[in-house]
Write a structure and sequence with these properties.
The protein is mainly alpha-helical. The chain has 4 helices and 2 strands, in the order αββααα.
């Protein structure tokens, strides 16, 4: 897989994961409106912000993308665990560093001239 296909693949995955995380969290809160509402021992009702659910869904999508990225890295023999951890925490930053890692590898194999 060349560099352009990797950029296209992972940029589409980033966009789709962000869109689907918003949609899934909105639909979940529409179906279960009391999902983020808790009652404490002193009968006080605490409501969490809906962003917590969105971040949880986004984290799950990030984990799936990290798995895909790990198999691509293994195939290209450039496995970098810091990039995988960064992708798990921040998908945009992780994908950027992964693309930079691919470019770095191709540059040192003299496949890219800058």
């Amino acid at each position: 897989m060349n560099l352009q296909k990797s950029i296209l693949k992972y940029s589409l995955l980033v966009i789709l994961s962000i869109v689907f995380s918003v949609i899934i969290s909105a639909v979940t809160l529409k179906i279960y409106p009391n999902l983020l509402r808790f009652q404490r021992d002193d009968n006080l009702i605490v409501t969490l912000d809906s962003h917590y659910l969105r971040y949880l869904v986004q984290f799950i999508f990030n984990a799936i993308i990290v798995g895909l990225m790990y198999f691509d890295m293994k195939e290209k023999k450039i496995t970098s665990f810091p990039v995988l951890i960064l992708t798990l925490l921040s998908i945009k930053s992780g994908i950027i560093f992964y693309i930079l890692l691919l470019m770095f590898k191709k540059y040192y194999k003299n496949e890219i001239n800058i």
